[in-house]
């Protein structure tokens, strides 16, 4: 059977992006128009400026992705588009383009959730590697592929400028949210601290701050690790940000002072270290919660007793009262050793996926990699250009949904009957 070939369109925030991807994992063509320069003056994404920029770019971005794929709209199996969450003025631009294509070329339309696209693109890296091995050699098939593929269920940490979510991905369209942020997302906190330190914000405040922190001492300033008294999987960065602001006011000498550069680097490194400690604490607990949830699901699905207790090294092992198992078994199941007979461990947690712009941070990867290894999980991080917003992730999520029949039939051409 011929692979599906899907065009994905993304316009939820400040990138207009499109890509053509085949269901065997080949990325046939990609295009993206960023808006960083437009929003730099506002100090954040300005919705109507963003919508105008999307409107100006959408036709050429889609045309470019199709041209690079050597495809015409009529060659496609479907068009997928991000329908939310995001800025509605911006989403509209992509949705309108997708509807027009669906109508003109008779293509099925796949509605894609932005966060699902971020999560599922990790599965593309594995498919792309397989296509490469088979000699498919898609244009964008290279990347940090997951050796064994990414299979459900997996734990997924999404960390970007707008989102900070921890979810148990149980299947396409089936996510258990374990935690989210009470205030800022980590990328936003990176951007704000970068601004407080007077750094350049391009290409991203986070990347510039990471580079500065490389020369700093992460132990120099003791900043508060967030939410120590909240044994759950939620995140918060507002208090840490305030801590950094006070530290800067107290410690950072004025421009021109010989120690300024080093002190700024030490503050950056101290902030980063505590922020990543916070991520690690929440993810460690989330691994326990996820295992509890899976064990509860297993025992609900069969009458045999479950051995998989959550291993919450973060302290409390009571888990999330609303969605974790109540198992009082003290058997200390670790490392995905769910012994559900005959299920070949298919219900066990094996992978931690980290996605979103902050996933390109080396310290984040390193420390979450160590944590994953301790917990018997494989860490999977998509290549950086698939971590930040892009069209490939939308096209891929579209393919995953199409395979399950989760799409709308082609929109009919408008039937305008003449009035009398
Ligand atoms: O996923 P993304 O492109 O956009 C959103 O959907 O929000 O993520 C952008 C965010 C920005 O806040 C940026 O500062 C952060 O990701 N970021 C980083 C790094 N590269 C980008 N944060 C920390 N370290 C990095 N290397
Ligand atoms: Zn995003």
UniProtKB/TrEMBL annotation:
GO BP annotations, alphabetical order: tRNA threonylcarbamoyladenosine modification
Subcellular location: Mitochondrion
GO terms for cellular component: mitochondrion
Keyword Mitochondrion: yes
Subunit and interaction comment: Homodimer.
GO molecular function, one term: tRNA N(6)-L-threonylcarbamoyladenine synthase activity
Record's cofactor remark: Binds 1 divalent metal cation per subunit.
Span covered, complete protein: 53 to 472 of 554
Segments for region (Disordered): 298-344
Cofactor (UniProt): a divalent metal cation
UniProt key word ATP-binding: no
Designated name of the protein: Glycoprotease 1
Biased composition (Low complexity): 318-332
Lineage top rank: taxon: Eukaryota
Biased composition regions of type Gly residues, renumbered to the chain: 307-317, 333-344
Catalyzed reactions: L-threonylcarbamoyladenylate + adenosine(37) in tRNA = N(6)-L-threonylcarbamoyladenosine(37) in tRNA + AMP + H(+)
Keywords, sorted A to Z: Acyltransferase, Metal-binding, Mitochondrion, Signal, Transferase, tRNA processing
The gene coding this protein: GCP1
Domain Gcp-like: 27-126, 148-285, 349-396
Protein family per UniProt: Belongs to the KAE1 / TsaD family.
Organism: Raphidocelis subcapitata
Function: Required for the formation of a threonylcarbamoyl group on adenosine at position 37 (t(6)A37) in mitochondrial tRNAs that read codons beginning with adenine. Probably involved in the transfer of the threonylcarbamoyl moiety of threonylcarbamoyl-AMP (TC-AMP) to the N6 group of A37. Involved in mitochondrial genome maintenance.
Main location as per UniProt: mitochondrion
């Amino acid at each position: 059977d011929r692979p599906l070939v899907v065009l994905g369109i993304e316009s939820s925030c400040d990138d207009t992006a499109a890509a053509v991807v085949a269901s065997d994992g080949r990325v046939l063509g990609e295009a993206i128009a960023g808006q960083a320069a437009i929003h730099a003056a506002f100090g954040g994404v300005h919705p109507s400026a963003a919508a105008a920029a999307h409107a100006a770019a959408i036709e050429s971005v889609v045309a470019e992705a199709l041209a690079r794929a050597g495809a015409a709209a009529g060659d496609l199996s479907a068009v997928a588009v991000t329908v939310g969450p995001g800025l509605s003025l911006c989403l509209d631009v992509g949705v309108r383009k997708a509807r027009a294509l669906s109508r003109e070329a008779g293509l099925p339309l796949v509605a894609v959730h932005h966060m699902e696209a971020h999560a599922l693109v990790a599965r593309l890296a594995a498919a792309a590697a397989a296509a490469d091995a088979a000699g498919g050699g898609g244009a964008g098939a290279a990347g940090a592929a997951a050796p064994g593929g990414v299979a459900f269920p997996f734990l997924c940490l999404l960390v970007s400028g707008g989102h900070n979510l921890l979810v148990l991905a149980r299947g396409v369209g089936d996510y258990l949210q374990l935690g989210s942020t009470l205030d800022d997302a980590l990328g936003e906190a990176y951007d704000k601290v970068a601004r407080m330190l007077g750094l350049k914000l391009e290409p991203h405040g986070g990347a510039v701050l990471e580079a500065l922190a490389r020369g700093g001492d992460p132990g120099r300033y003791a900043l508060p690790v967030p939410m120590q008294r909240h044994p759950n999987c939620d995140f918060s960065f507002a208090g840490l940000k305030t801590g950094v602001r006070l530290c800067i006011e107290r410690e950072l000498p004025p421009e021109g002072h010989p120690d300024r550069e080093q002190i700024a680097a030490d503050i950056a490194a101290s902030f980063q270290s505590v922020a990543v400690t916070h991520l690690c604490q929440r993810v460690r607990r989330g691994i326990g919660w996820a295992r509890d949830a899976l064990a509860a699901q297993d025992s609900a699905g069969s009458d045999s007793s479950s051995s998989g207790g959550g291993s919450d090294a973060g302290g409390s092992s009571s888990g999330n009262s609303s969605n974790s198992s109540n198992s009082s078994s003290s058997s200390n199941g670790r490392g995905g050793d769910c012994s559900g007979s005959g299920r070949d461990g298919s219900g066990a947690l094996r992978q931690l996926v980290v996605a979103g712009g902050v996933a390109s941070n080396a310290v984040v990867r390193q420390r979450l990699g160590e944590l994953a290894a301790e917990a018997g999980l494989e860490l999977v991080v998509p290549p950086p250009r698939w971590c930040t917003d892009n069209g490939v992730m939308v096209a891929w999520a579209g393919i995953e949904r199409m395979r399950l029949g989760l799409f709308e039939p082609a929109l009919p051409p408008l039937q305008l009957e003449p009035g009398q």
